[in-house]
Amino acid sequence: MDAIELIKKDHRRVEALFARFKGGGGLTGLVRRVTGSVPPRQRNSAVESICRELDVHTRIEEEILYPAARITEDADVQKLVEESLREHARVKEHVVWLRQHPAEQHPADQDVDDRMGALEQDVQHHVSEEENDMLPRLEQLLSEVVRGALGRRMQARKKELGATRAAPARATARKRRTTTARKATARKTARRARKTVARQTSRRKKAHAR
């Protein structure tokens, strides 16, 4: 895939995830946003996916696309790369904060909503600058062959980064399932114990009454 098309595809994916965080598209999404009834699980899933996508996206841009852009020695592109790196730094700060304040642990936390709003604004600004300024210029400066080669490298790197993050994510999911199962078992055990105590107490009372 052409590097520029890959970047744009990533942008659309993240935009869709922001919409999912806010309840999704269409009339259903609008109603959920107005009534504040977006399911906590959907919000949490969207936040996790956004953080993961932005992690990978910023990495492939910084490791592959921007170095290729610098090689062009185009003055305008150099300035745009520097600005993009500053924007990446702000995005990373938001991602770190969101990971330290999981949406599932703060389902109605206004701070999470505010942070997601700020992140979305920063991402929108970054996307606008890239798609209106940097990417069209790179399309002029880099040949189709070069863009294709960059795209293949970026796709390969995305797969590597995705695999690297998948293992910890699976481990976390297993840990959550185990914790949930243990809590459920503990609740069942407690209920049984209470019933046993209640039966024994009832028997003693009956025996005493006789």
Largest sheet: none
User: What is the C-level CATH assignment?
Assistant: Mainly Alpha
Number of strands: 0
Cα(first) to Cα(last) distance is 87 Å
Strand content: under 5%
Given the helix and strand composition, which structural class is it?
mainly alpha
Q: What does this protein look like?
A:
88% of the residues lie in helices and 0% in strands. By secondary structure, it is mainly alpha-helical. The chain has one domain (3-184): Four Helix Bundle (Hemerythrin (Met), subunit A) (Up-down Bundle), CATH 1.20.120. α3 packs antiparallel against α6 (144-209). 20% of the residues are buried. The model has no long low-confidence stretch (mean pLDDT 84).
Q: Could you give a quick summary of the protein structure above?
A:
This protein has 210 residues and is mainly alpha-helical. The chain contains six helices and no strands.
